[in-house]
Amino acid sequence: MRIAQVSPLYERVPPKLYGGTERVIHYLTEELITLGHETTLFASGDSITKGKLVSVIPESLRLQKHKKDPMVYHILMLEKVFQMAESFDIIHYHIDFFHFPFSKRSKTKHLTTLHGRLDLPDLTLLYREFDRIPVVSISKAQRSFLPWIHWVGTVYHGIPTDLYPFYPGKGNYLAFVGRISPEKGIERAIEIAKRVGMDLKIAAKVDEVDKQYFLEVILPLFKKAPVEFIGEIGEEEKKVFFGNAYALLFPINWPEPFGLVMIEAMACGTPVIGWRNGSVPEIVIDGQTGYIIHSVEEGVKKIMDIDRIDRKECRKHVLNHFTARKMAQSYLSIYNNLLYGE
Q: Are 274 and 280 in contact (CB under 8 A)?
């Protein structure tokens, strides 16, 4: 099968540091190639793939010293995609809805994985217009806000089975990985660490839009709890970071569509303590691979119960449900349905 994968240009594929969507695109692209499919990746020029790379910009947008208009380069990329459209059997988009007006008029089969939140009111208006665009959710919870649009499947993210080594020994600190923003609930993680008296290591990026929130709200909290702020870390650093953690805190304050860090942590054997929001109940088995909670008080109690979680079960859960091979095979099934099932 001749497949195009269309990535956002904000991060390299795979990312050097933060970047869940681009990381997943990398795993999917390389697994499709391993399975024998001719795969073309549309991404920034510094991306890495065994397939064909097509780019309109030499370096990913976020890490460039001189800021560029992201819309310009995404439009240029889409022009490339549609110039080449007839050379593909199917085009798989990961760039939200920017391509909808063009794809609607294209003869080439396509689908879009929606990686972001769908609870924003304006999206209803948009999807009323584009209600026949085939889309894929990354959790069942994600699609609950727009259940009536043209869903063609739910595919959970997956990671290569050999990417994260298993760490059998329990760690000695709590971990937070992600982004410093109000919806990620970092205040909850800091409060839990403070109450249980355990070190909390934070590996996170701070976007420009969240810088004031970080400086005025979060930074003062660091003085009141045993917190070590590490900043952004890459794939190699994450292996050790997750593996040596006692538990991953996932204190989200929004309907998280997936949460890649949860399966990354569990792949190392590290249990997850997550708020009952979004996809968390679909990814964490309460009492078996971690705990699903509703409050800081409950989180404090569950920290004390982490020894009841078998780290081998955490890894087993990922190997059974969240691998790159399983993800690629699920997408191939959807591709075939779109090509031959209608």
A: yes
Residue at token pair 């026949």: 132
Per-residue pLDDT, 20: 86
The tens digit of pLDDT for each residue in 191-241 reads: 999 999 999 999 998 988 999 999 999 999 998 889 999 998 888 899 999
Q: Are 89 and 109 in contact (CB under 8 A)?
A: yes
* Contact assessment for residue 154 and residue 226, using Cβ atoms and an 8 Å cutoff: no
Q: Are strands 151-154 and 200-205 parallel, antiparallel or unpaired?
A: unpaired
The answer to whether residues 136 and 153 touch, using CB atoms and an 8 Å cutoff, is yes
Edge-first strand order for the sheet with 247-250 is 227-229, 200-205, 174-179, 247-250, 272-275, 290-293
Tracing tokens 């995404």 back to the chain, one arrives at 74
CA distance 98 to 100: 6
CA 207 to chain centre: 17
User: Nearest-CA neighbor of 165 among 264, 261, 28, 23?
Assistant: 264
DSSP code per residue over 210-279: GHHHIIIIIGGGGGGTTEEE-----HHHHHHHHHT-SEEEE--SS--S--HHHHHHHHTT--EEEESSTT
In a 13 Å sphere around the CA of 108, the CA atoms on its Cβ side amount to 22
Domains defined along the chain, listed by start: 2-160+323-340 (3.40.50.2000), 174-321 (3.40.50.2000)
